[in-house]
Amino acid sequence: MTSPRVRIAVAGVGNCASALIQGIEYYRALNDLRSAGLINSEIAGITAGDIDVVAAFDVDIRKVGKPVNEAIFAAPNCAQRLVEDMPGESITVEMGPVLDGIAPHMAEQPDDRAFRQADAAPVDIAQSLKNSGAEVLVCYLPVGSDEAVKHYAQACLDAGVALVNCVPVFLASDAAWADKFRDAGLPIIGDDIKSQLGATIVHRVLTQLFNERGVDLQQTYQLNTGGNTDFMNMRAEDRLKSKRISKTQSVQSANDQPMTDDNIHIGPSDYVAWQKDNKVCFIRMQGQGFGQSPVELELRLSVEDSPNSAGSVIDAIRFAKAGLMQGWAGPLEEPSAYYMKSPARQIPDAEAFQLCKTLVDELAG
After folding, report:
1. Beta partners for 142?
2. Nearest by Cα to 333 from 209, 136, 221, 188
3. How far is it, in rounded angstroms, from Cα 283 to Cα 351?
4. What is the residue extent of each domain of the chain?
5. Confidence band, pLDDT 50/70/90 cuts, at residue 33
6. Which of 65, 127, 281, 361 lies 20 to 30 Å from 257, alpha-carbon distance?
7. What is the C-alpha to C-alpha distance for residues 90 and 10, in angstroms, rounded to an integer?
8. What is the CATH number of domain 6-194+307-364?
9. What are the backbone dihedrals phi and psi of residue 51, each rounded to the nearest 5 degrees, phi first?
10. CA separation (Å) from 162 to 106, 178, 182, 240?
């Protein structure tokens, strides 16, 4: 029996897109997927290699007009190479709307660290999605691109395309936008991707552990450094607001009693150019156990940021396709809760994992 295929479009051909597109090719060539770094080897009969990129959008002069398999390695991208020899033929990256997609402070940075706007007219995104036959759009726009993300979301509604929203612009978790996708009969998974084994999921699990073991968590912080364009972009505090909200509420939701703002600090902390796509996270947790005795925990986590994101997105895409196949509409609750920081409904990770596992088993049947 032939596996279903998924035709995807990608908005933002940055490091995360590079890791995802390389990963699709990597798994397409891999015979045994059972222990290959995937959360699920199949979802609804769809493997990681059954995904086809049919449209891509960006605004950078080094990417627009180039084949996507070439653009994913263009500056300022710095994600690691997962596949040395990508196929030569691929679709061409089209010019998207800039809107608020490029932070002004990027102009002050060297070319190899920042975005450089192409001198081209933006295409009609909805029409391009229709022409390509895309079924799912993966939104990878920079943090703070509120207007641009909503432009792509509306294009999905106009073109009849499902959406995986990987950024902290609140769509699936916003009642009005959720209703728009529900009324259009389209699934949406969001908001703000939770990496496969990243800072947020580790912090959430540890917070839940404190609660389950009766330890009163009183203060905590999560500090992150990295050297990719995501960290460069977030040097502008006004673009960082939604990211802080998303990451903080994700950890807060795992705590029985929300902590006061003075006692919890979570969010990207600094840009370190030489780290490139390596993200280093420092977590500290302070609490009280039996007899109010002190408990302190410190953790350092180092990951390649973009492949870590792709490890979750590869599943979200396949759940979105399953939603189209099953006729599901609006926010998909189980995958949004498990794979996203800010879903419409927060569910404890262990429970969300079991719900997704059950869903995978049902789709396999």
Report:
1. none
2. 188
3. 24
4. 6-194+307-364, 199-304
5. low
6. 281
7. 13
8. 3.40.50.720
9. -100, 130
10. 31, 12, 11, 26
What does the H/E/C string look like for 80-110? CCCCCCCCCCCCEEEECCCCCCCCHHHHHCC
**Which pair of structure tokens corresponds to residue 216?**
């009163």
Second CATH level (architecture) for the domain 199-304: 2-Layer Sandwich (3.30)
HSE (side-chain half, CA atoms, 13 Å) at 244: 16
pTM, rounded to two decimals: 0.95
Confidence class for position 158, pLDDT limits 50, 70, 90: very high
- With bands split at pLDDT 50, 70 and 90, how would you rate the model's confidence at 321? very high
The Cα 219–Cα 142 span in angstroms is 30
Using the predicted structure, report yes or no on whether residue 268 has a pLDDT greater than 80.
no
Residues across the chain: 365
> What mean pLDDT do residues 193-211 have?
96
Q: Which residues pair with 297 in a beta bridge?
A: 285
Query: How much is the pLDDT for 239?
Result: 82
Q: Above 70 in pLDDT, residue 296? A: yes
Bridge partner list, 60: 117
- Is the per-residue pLDDT at 289 higher than 60? yes
Record the tokens describing residue 1, joined without a space. 């029996």
**Distance in angstroms (rounded) separating the CA atoms of residues 12 and 63:** 10
Q: Is the dihedral of CA 69, 81, 196, 276 positive or negative?
A: negative
3-state secondary structure of 303: strand
Which residues lie closer than 8 Å to 361 by C-beta, 6 or more apart? Answer: none
pLDDT at 1 (0 to 100)? 55
